[in-house]
Each structure stands twice: as C-alpha cells, then as structure tokens.
C-alpha cells in the first residue's frame, strides 16, 4: 500500500547525524519524531478569515528558529495576534474537499516535516486534510519568549481560525507534542472533534501519578536533573553539550537500547534520525533555547492535572502506546487511565517509543479516531 509521501525516499533529504554522548544523556529520550520527509507540492492559497474571537504541500528547506528575513517566500506562515509568525504545511486531500480535518502536533526536536505514515489510499478514501505546523521556535516559526501550556493551545486555536478549518477539528499529538494536546483538552475543548495521543510523554509532577509507581523510576530523576540545570544554569548546559572534548558518534543514541527496543532500532535504520540533537545544531543558541524552553514548558509545573479533565461524549479521546516503550513506561498511562475512563487506550504489542513509524499504526489511529472502528489487535488484555 503506497504511503502518503511521508517515506518517499526519492524526495527525502538526508542529514548528517552526529550525536554526542553528552547530548544523548540530557535530551534524546524526548525526541521521538524529528524525522524529516518531503511530499510533492500543492499550493492552494487560503482565504483570510477573522472570526469574532481573533482579529498544498510545498517542498521547503527546513530551518530552525529562522529569523523572518531568512524565511523563503515558499514557506507558508500566518501572523499571530502577538506579532509572531507560525509556519505550516498542508497534506492529504484539499481542505475544501475534506470530510475530516486534523492538526498534527510534532514532538521534541521535530517540525512540520514530521512523519505520519498513513496510507494514501486510506487518506483519500476518508477525505482527510492534515494541517502540520512548526511549534514556536521550531522550523520556520518565530520563538515565543512567553511559551507556556496555555500559549501552545492558543497558537493551535488561532492557526485553526486563520486557515478556516471549521468550528471543530481533530488533534493528533506525537510524543512531546502531547503536552500541547493536553493543554487543548483543558483550554479549548469546545474546538475538538476528537483527540489521539501517540506515544505521549508524562509529567512526573502530575499529582495523579502513583507515588509508589514512580518512586524508583530512573527517568524521574533524570528529568528532574535536566529540568533544574536547564532552568537555573542554561549557559553551563549549552557549553557542556557543545564541547568537542566529548566523543561523537552516529550510533550513541540511535542504537541505544536504554531508550529504544528492537523494533525502534529497526525503524532508526531507515529514517533520518535526530537532526536537531546533533552537536553542530546544539551549538546554535537559537536551537538550544527552543529545545530548552520546550522542555521546561512540558516538564514544569502545570496549571492542571490531566486526571481532573472532563470531556463531553461528543469527542473521543485515545491514547496509543507501545508496551515496550522505554522512554515512557506503559504502566504510567495505565495509572492515569484509571482516573480517566472516558479515554480509550490502545497498546501496540512489542511497540517502543517510535510506534508512529510502524507499519499500520497510523492507519489504525485514523480508523479508530475518525470512524470509531474497534482495533482489536491493539486492545490490551488487562488494565
């Protein structure tokens, strides 16, 4: 079954990956979807629309925290109310022909070029329009010095308004893209037709997490250490991860069994890896600051606990997780789900953190989210 261009090897740009042992300790376990692929360009120009609450595919060279005067004319961007520019890309069927409209939210170190390998046949059959965008500071979008949980949700709402995708839309958040997704459930639930989390991260500060469950989890200590040094000594952290005295190798992260299971490692052999986590990129202060601010927003203190959220029966919410995920143990989500019975949980057998790249996963996500088709293969035996 031909994929929707998300793995078109003839068009895919390959980047040199050099991952240091130091950066692989501090940041890599958050970067689940920084793979880049390119689709054939389409270019319908959306009409401007300003609702009361707010005053297709182009091949572009990705940039990171790119100043406005360095962004090419081919990059599509909207201007937000605070003056920032947000870059986006459209995929799937044309917007005016779509039955379903989905905003895809990329993860740590990724961009609007993220991978979501749904089959072209299914996308056309269902009539799915995808809207991908660079979150603040990523790709061709301007950074947001006031980044927060709420600002991520408001960026999404304003993007939806500007591009006129309708009063309600679907969200799919991948890995670190889950915290903007949770924020949307909190701050703009009335705009959501349905939500899917794919390999979502968790914040160890959520009160609803079992203290007994996370007490001996080494990830909690690692994230706590990273958070403190990122917040209180960012200059030292930037110097440390960019030093030449640390050895560099393409395999330190990408074959690291601490973070990835065997299925993930097979995926890493055929994708472009983690380009934003190379030592060369991390030396760029704008890249470092974007990653740091994203990390602090996602793992800092939240203004709500997901376990306290409530949704109407009109919107379905799903979590897709691998039962061998070494970045975020599946037991943590099972713990949360006991307090959120309205969320439908799906578990990928032998699935690691990179399940968005597995054959069939994205099609299953779409069928369950849009059609409500029960995906029995991914039903866990016991929760």
SS elements, strand count: 10
The whole-number mean of residue pLDDT values reads 81
Net shape: globular
Strand order of the largest sheet: 2-3-5-4-6-7-9-10
What is the strand content?
5-15%
Portion of residues in helices?
A: 25-40%
Terminal CA distance: 33 Å
Total helical segments: 13
Question: Explain this structure to me?
Answer:
With 383 residues, the protein is α/β, with parallel strands linked by helices. 30% of the residues lie in helices and 14% in strands. It has helices at residues 21-26, 120-126, 149-162, 178-187, 211-214, 218-232, 234-241, 251-254, 262-268, 279-282, 285-299, 330-337, 361-371, and strands at 19-20, 76-79, 85-92, 100-105, 128-133, 169-174, 192-198, 248-249, 316-322, 343-348. The chain has an 8-stranded mixed sheet with strand order 2-3-5-4-6-7-9-10, with helices on both faces. A two-stranded antiparallel sheet has the order 1-8. The radius of gyration is 19 Å and the shape is globular. Mean pLDDT is 81; it is low at 5-69 and 247-252. InterPro entries: AB_hydrolase_1, AB_hydrolase_fold. This is AB hydrolase-1 domain-containing protein. Residues 102-359 form the AB hydrolase-1 domain.
